């Protein structure tokens, strides 16, 4: 069966429903393009972890998804020496610039304070937190990549964030069609979306190339300020090497991917967290009691507090379970001809991983659609980690920014709930807990009020 028309709007929901009929492993066709869909924790873990050598690559059509149509960066690069080299370099550089360290906590808390001040200025008026949250989170990745932060009213910054919003709010099914089947780019409905996508990708790339040029002009090998400088340093070390993977275009594409991923996904998760708090004030109250008992009103949050705050940790884990921002991973590709669960799968076959099917599995989570942090607490109130919560995926393609994202989510969330109680505006309709399935899974726009704590 050709499945294109059926899955365009919300493929993750369709795939999860089909898994009940066809099992955890099935094939769909997008035109002539064959895609294996993996559902359920057991099948996903078996493929991505136990058979990682076969399921960790990308397919050859990935170039159609990158801004210049050829340079794949880390996200789209097939599994192999080039991907390993770039990923290792990126991980080491992120650590060098503070990811996982107290120095990064300071940068995140600086943005949390700025965000809190913006919220405080609302003076008990109803507001939408989306742009403020995106500003705060984006500034964290900007400090790592560009070595600076932007003021919230900076016009250039606003243009960049608007471009990111346009990229992530597009219809994922239409995007897949236009990228994989070029003639569809001229069809009514698809043409406009495709043109807008390329325009917004271009805006981000132009800004990144401008920042790289500025760094080249002020580069000092004795003062490596940020990721751009680190990449320039590595590129200069390999000058004259015809096989170097540290070209100017690779530089721009990797920065593009870091900037894009580091801005939208974490800010969206934090918006989900605040939505659940206003919908479940009893849970918000318990989180605030724990914050008060561990940190009090004046001590700033730190990652060392996380192990002392099991209810807060359980609450954030439930947010990640119930609202995975990327419920379908970027498609993997098979590196070899392989046999998986009795199916012969050729090399270069596209493999889609359905994280949603794991997080909403009623066999793992009784009442899977209910927001319930106690799923992750034992009888004594201690936090219980569950392997089946995989919002950042698993295996060799696990999200590069997972550690940074977890730091931001914990520190910004606890910082906000230390200062404010979030509520529904009086008389406002109750927001929906069902989100919008686009390039990412986002909450529907909602208004809230922030009442400063005494």
Number of domains: 1
Number of helices: 16
Averaged pLDDT? 90
Series of H and E elements: HHEEHHHHHHHHHHHHEEEEHHEEEE
The biggest sheet amounts to:
4 strands, mixed
Low-pLDDT runs = 1-6
If you had to describe this structure to a student in words, what would you say it looks like?
This protein has 454 residues and is α+β, with helices and mostly antiparallel strands. It has one domain: Orthogonal Bundle (Cytochrome p450). It has 16 helices and ten strands. It has helices spanning 4-7, 11-22, 41-50, 52-55, 81-96, 102-120, 130-145, 155-168, 172-180, 190-217, 227-237, 248-279, 281-294, 310-322, 355-359, 402-419; strands spanning 25-30, 33-39, 332-333, 338-340, 343-345, 350-354, 420-423, 436-437, 441-442, 449-452. The strands form four sheets. It has a four-stranded mixed sheet with strand order 1-2-6-3. A two-stranded antiparallel sheet has the order 4-5. Strands 7-10 form a two-stranded antiparallel sheet. The longest helix has 32 residues, at 248-279. The chain is globular and about 60 Å long. The termini are far apart. Mean pLDDT is 90; it is low at 1-6.
């Amino acid at each position: 069966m050709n499945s294109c028309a059926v899955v365009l709007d919300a493929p993750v929901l369709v795939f999860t429903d089909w898994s009940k009929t066809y099992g955890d492993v099935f094939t769909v066709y997008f035109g002539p393009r064959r895609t294996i869909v993996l559902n359920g924790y057991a099948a996903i873990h078996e493929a991505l972890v136990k058979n990682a050598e076969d399921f960790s690559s990308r397919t050859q059509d990935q170039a159609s998804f990158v801004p210049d149509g050829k340079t794949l960066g880390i996200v789209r690069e097939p599994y192999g020496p080039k991907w390993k080299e770039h990923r290792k370099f990126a991980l080491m550089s992120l650590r060098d610039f503070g990811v996982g360290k107290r120095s990064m906590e300071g940068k995140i808390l600086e943005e949390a304070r700025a965000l809190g001040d913006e919220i405080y200025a609302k003076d008990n008026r109803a507001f939408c937190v989306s742009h403020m949250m995106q500003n705060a989170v984006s500034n964290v990745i900007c400090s790592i990549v560009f070595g600076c932060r932007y003021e919230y009213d900076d016009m250039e910054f606003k243009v960049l964030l608007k471009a990111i919003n346009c990229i992530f709010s597009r219809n994922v099914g239409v995007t897949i069609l236009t990228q994989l089947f070029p003639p569809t780019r001229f069809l009514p409905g698809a043409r406009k979306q495709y043109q807008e996508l390329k325009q917004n990708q271009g805006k981000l790339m132009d800004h990144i190339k401008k920042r790289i040029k500025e760094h080249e002009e002020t580069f000092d090998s004795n003062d490596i300020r940020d990721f751009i400088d680190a990449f320039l340093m590595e590129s200069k070390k390999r000058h004259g090497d015809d096989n170097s993977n540290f070209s100017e275009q690779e530089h721009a594409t990797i920065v593009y991917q870091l900037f894009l991923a580091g801005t939208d996904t974490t800010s969206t998760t934090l918006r989900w967290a605040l939505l659940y708090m206003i919908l479940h004030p009893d849970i918000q109250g318990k989180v605030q009691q724990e914050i008060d008992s561990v940190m009090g009103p004046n001590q700033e949050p730190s990652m060392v507090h996380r192990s002392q705050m099991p209810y807060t940790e359980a609450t954030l884990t439930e947010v990640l379970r119930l609202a995975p921002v990327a419920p379908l991973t970027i498609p993997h590709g098979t590196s070899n001809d392989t046999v998986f669960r009795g199916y012969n799968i050729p090399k270069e076959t596209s493999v889609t991983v359905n994280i949603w099917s794991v997080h909403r599995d009623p066999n793992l989570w009784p009442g899977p659609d209910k927001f319930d942090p106690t799923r992750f607490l034992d009888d004594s109130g201690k936090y219980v980690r569950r392997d089946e919560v995989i919002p950042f995926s698993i295996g060799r393609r696990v999200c590069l920014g997972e550690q940074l994202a977890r730091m931001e989510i914990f520190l910004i969330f606890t910082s906000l709930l230390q200062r404010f109680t979030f509520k529904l505006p009086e008389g406002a309709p109750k927001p929906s807990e069902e989100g919008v399935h686009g390039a990412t899974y986002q909450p529907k726009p909602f208004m809230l009020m922030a009442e400063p704590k005494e």
